[in-house]
Amino acid sequence: MTPEERKAFEDKVHAYVGREVNAPQKGKDDVNKAMIRHWAEVMGDENPAYTDEEYAAKSSKGGIIAPPSMLQIWSMEGYPMAHNPSQDVQRELHNVFDEHGFAGVLGTNTSAEYYRDLRPGDEVHAHTVIDKISEQKATQRGIGYFIETVTNFTDQNDEAVGKIIFRVLKFTPNDSNDATGGDDSDDGMPEAPTRIASPRGHDNKWWWDAVDEGKVLIQRCKSCQTLRHPPRPMCGECQSIEWDSIESTLDGEVFSFTELHYPKFPGYQYPLVCAVISLGEGTRIISNIVGCEPEDVYIGMKVKGKVEQVDEKTMLPQFYPAD
Ligand SMILES: [Zn+2]
Predict the structure, then answer these.
(1) Domain with CATH 3.10.129.10 in the chain
(2) Which of 57, 75, 246, 249 has a CA 20 to 30 Å removed from the CA of 164?
């Protein structure tokens, strides 16, 4: 992209700032006890102010309230959206980025403010505008722009009940550098991006350290011998916190799998087959199926794993068809 092209592109996207994503929308259902109860069950939130009439009536809330974090739920479009996504202004803006090579998308931040408790019978209206688009930034994911949308929520009296700010990064995935000219100027992109580093904490660092040495270990309870994966501090069978480990032979079978195409993260090859694999030892592991076409993968397929270096920094178990 020449400086002139970049300016034209930036002028085009910045013209979206301040535009509403779609007309203010009223939630399909008013705030209601059934949805509150389902949400509380799914989230495992046992606060009785959400579900217990009697308790809620006597509490400082004076009656059932909706969990504040349900705010966005009331105006969501629901399941049909998955088949026929609405072509709103936000989608149109993302398309402009896509056309200029910024095809990657990554949600980076969300923040919410709640102004009052919602109660059964309340109506919720949502109104989303594109609030900010950053200057071009060099990030670890690649070159891109942050887009911030703000959704203001109001009730049946047109009074504000809350606000949600959502920020995404639209960036150039690793295999198409057109948007930055590909002229290895000061774009800050690493030469070959690596996969996202494994998060290593107190309870799982030992497991990843073994992978770095070419081994896949399975945690074993010292008290009842039950195997478990992923690593965690306590045995689910006998609650013992004493454990050791065995090494897996990495003989397994595909229990389930999915083929990822989008969004593309730098450092990964697509399509990427991610599978849940039942290991011969009895535990399951999530990994990639490689060494065959994605369409040749099937549930029940016998696989054999190997710990391999998948990029400059990353060792990972990868599974191949067994035959
Ligand atoms: Zn045990």
Answers:
(1) 3-26+76-180
(2) 57
